[in-house]
Amino acid sequence: MENRGFKKQQNxxxxxxxxALEIALLTSMIEQIISLLTxxxxxxxxxxxxxMVGIDQTAQKxxxxxxxxxxxxxxxxxxxxxxxxxxxxxxxxxxLKIKRAQFVLExxxxxxxxxSIKPKDLESWLTVLNDxxxxxxxxxxxxxxxxxxxxxxxxxxxxxxxxxxWLTWLQSNLLEEMNS
Length: 180
Fold this sequence. Notes:
Blueprint: E1 7-8, E2 14-16, H1 20-37, H2 48-53, H3 65-70, H4 79-106, E3 115-117, H5 122-140, H6 145-150, H7 155-178
Antiparallel strand pairs: 1-2, 2-3
Helix pairs in contact: 1-4, 1-5, 4-5, 5-7
């Protein structure tokens, strides 16, 4: 494949193409994000008004590190305020992240085919790539560029680091083209 990365067109759309392995990898990772963010149905949230306006009476700080990275505490030093903020925002944030992930998943190109992303859809692509990168980084212990350089050893970790680097490049390339 000659044309690597995203390329901005005169009409504002951004084109790119991926190989079959890259599409399979992104598909799997996006599906995992959707699975992690899909809330468990809870009948305790029975207040109809709360449900209607998106308040989750049972929202709690996630136990899973990846979910916590994707849905972080709003206030690091105030647990009560953070929990209250989470009650009012987590449901809609989960729904938005899932909606964007499903959109990107449905619009991944066929292998080696060029896809055009409309300007209105760029934010979805960028945020989903970021969520996938953050999730992988959290699972393997990468939170900063320096961490990425220092984590080596097991073959599985080395593969994850390569994927993380590729996701970082992909996200960076998209952002550069969006701003060009």
